[in-house]
Design brief:
single chain; 210 residues; mainly alpha
Amino acid sequence: MNVARYILQNHVQVLELTWEHLWLVGLSTVFAMLVGIPLGILIAHRARFSKPVLAGANIIQTIPSLALFGFLLPVPWLGERADRLAILALTFYALLPIIRNTYTGIKGVDPAVLEAGRGMGLNESQLLLQVELPLAVSVILSGVRVALVISVGLATIAAAIGAGGLGEFIFRGLAMVDNRVILAGAIPAAILALTADLIIGWLEKRLRPS
């Protein structure tokens, strides 16, 4: 098969670009979790913040990825390094599912369980760490899984600004009108997305309260 032969002949570059892709996706997802999970917890406990936070995350999702890259390009320090810019943009796109699922997971905890915890003398911080988060973790992971899959796909577009990743093959193939080169980027990206989905899905099921 021509595509398989092309990938084998260029396996070193495929592996390098796959690593770059994983770096962009992994780092942006970690940043999105560090921001999104606390925000989700905040809006679950402070209802007045829920509409503006979710609306802001929704608005970001509606901005086309290339347009967002363009908006961020003139920002000092950020625009100097394409990988920084791509990681920030991917972090923005990953926020909505993580915030929304954290909010849903925390709000979905049975009030009777919370009352039982308070009756045992737990304060609000202890309730969050010992009751709410353990019960909500599978729902939160579901949001992380969606964010990861979205990021794997969007990271291919980051190659358009020179951030690297498997999108380099895709854009190169489009310029050359060569399906082999396009698929050399698209197939590993699809495998990454499926693998991330399966791994996080397995963790989600393992941590789901019985």
